[in-house]
Amino acid sequence: MHRALSGRHYVFALLDPSSGSVNKQEPELVLSPVKECSKNLHHVADHRAAQQRRPRLQRRSAPHGGRQTLQRVYRNFHYRKQTKDQWARDDPAFLVLLSIWLCVSTLGFGLVLDMGVLETLKLLLWVVFVDCIGVGLLISTLMWFISNKYLLKQPSRNLDVEWGYAFDVHLNAFYPLLLILHFLQLFFINHLVVINSEWFLGYFVGNTLWLIAIGYYLYITFLGYNALPFLQNTVVLLYPFALLGLFYVLSISLGWNFTQSLCSFYKFRVK
Question: Which stretches does the entry tag as region Disordered (predicted)?
Answer without folding.
Answer: 45-66
